[in-house]
Amino acid sequence: MGWWGLLLLACSAGSTVEPPSSQPDPATQPQGEVLLPSVEREAGPGTTPSSAEDEGPTPQAQVLLPGEAPRVVLSFTGIGQLHRGFFGSEAAIAELEAQLSACTSGDTPVMLRWSEEDRWGIITAQLDADRAACLPRWEGEDLELRELARVGAALAAYRDRVAGSFDYRISSFAIEVQVARGDRRCTFSARGEHPPDGRRFARCVRTPGGSFCGAGEDGVTRITGLSAEGRRWISTCTPSAGPE
Question: Which of 21, 176, 214, 225 keeps 20 to 30 A from 13, CA to CA?
Fold first, then answer.
């Protein structure tokens, strides 16, 4: 071997091999999967590492946000600090308050809940039956929901704005509108093509006396065929009594 060969051999022996990159090759990832931080993937869209461990099964916190009256008052259950900030976005809250301003003269509680066990989130607005304008109305034995749909649509727009700005998974949160008179609550759940746009509701209403269902299928703007007992219970929450 000549001296050129010896020189090449020495150079080869002294070279090092760079370690492979620790970052995954995007081409090897399943199509359609979004790579999220491991903590978020384990804790779910509602939690951060500390909140997943420290909040406990039924944590609650309240935040009063500034703005023109009527205000939106947020409360949280199972929602981590990061996502509380998302839901508390000033722009999203201002838009929601503007849309609700024609529907209520007082503050509007909006409850945001995430169940890690069920992997299910819900946004619920509560209306005072004695102060709100956009409420279910009795027309004979039927319950008309066109005005209530204005609140449902505002909540859906709020959900979609937060999802579009911060975390697309929030778009899967369900929408509910709760009508309250004193300690009595009647809950109307939005239904329709996923995710519901808040303009149509389930045919069943949850009341203090149980759940009462009208005729037909979910996705209604008017509930018909309610039993007399169902009408009586719903009337305890709605602004005017239904027929006996």
Answer: 21
What SS3 class is residue 178? strand
Answer yes or no: is 222 within a domain.
yes
Q: pTM of the predicted model, to two decimals?
A: 0.72
Task: Give the bridge partners for 113, in sequence order.
Answer: 77, 122
243 falls within a domain: no
Count: domains in the chain: 1
Bridge partners (DSSP) of residue 239 are none
Asked if residue 89 belongs to a domain, the reply is: yes
* 135 close to 104: Cβ distance less than 8 angstroms: no
pLDDT tens per residue across span 125-137: 999 998 899 999 9
Beta bridge partners of 189: 176
Q: What CA–CA distance (Å, rounded) separates 92 from 57?
A: 28
Neighbours of 123 (CB within 10 A): 23
User: Which residues make beta-bridge pairs with 142?
Assistant: 139
Q: Which residues of the chain have pLDDT under 70?
A: 1-69, 240-244
